[in-house]
Amino acid sequence: TVGRLDEESEGLILLTNDGSFSRLLCDPEFGLRKTYRVVVRGSCYNNLAVEQQSNNAISSNELAKRKVAEMIIHSNNVPTVTSDIKNGTPTIHHFPFESCNVLDVGQLQSQHSLDDSYYALIDLVLCEGKRHAVRRICKNAKLRVCFLSRISVEGLDEEYYRVNKPNSILEAHMNGFIPGGRHRDIVVDGILIAEEDNSSIMLQSGDVVELRDCDVDRIFALRSTK
Hints:
Elements (H helix, E strand, L loop, with lengths): L9 E2 L7 H8 L7 E9 L2 H8 L7 H16 L4 E4 L6 E4 L5 E8 L11 E9 L6 H8 L3 E10 L15 H6 L11 E3 L2 E3 L19 H11 L3
Parallel strand pairs: 1-7
Antiparallel strand pairs: 2-6, 2-7, 3-4, 5-6, 8-9
Helix pairs in contact: 2-3
């Protein structure tokens, strides 16, 4: 496999017996970008709301998205220092990412009025996927990952290799990507598509699709431009 995923994650997994192709995809020297869509849960939503009232020129949702993005960027701009479990020696970890795009932030209608937590939908782009890098990036920002999927690899046609992914907090909840959601069917443009009818729309867990020659050629061509 090229770029493993842990058992709690999903998304694109590439299989190859070509060593040079595998190195091209994984080695940060070539800088191929991988995009991960993440649903996270944070606390102190009211703190975001207080800051929103100070600027009426920008919508409250846009300000909340900016605040979450700032949390992620600022909490990961310095290496993380942890202690080795065996001998207690400090270990420095650095989890760089190329970009952080917060797509949606909000609370669920079903949340209790005293529940101050919120959910955010984020796209993180990495060139180097160290072990649990995405989860650690979110953890550094005090955000808990509810859903994580690798949705694209640079060079692959995103329209051809479409994976199951939420596009809003509401859709994430309806599709079961957030604990307590109703099911794992698909909602597209507000229309529910039953599980037995969505196989032709996007890749499902366990689907195997052969890489097209044009995609392999495109990835090798990207090597010369990096």
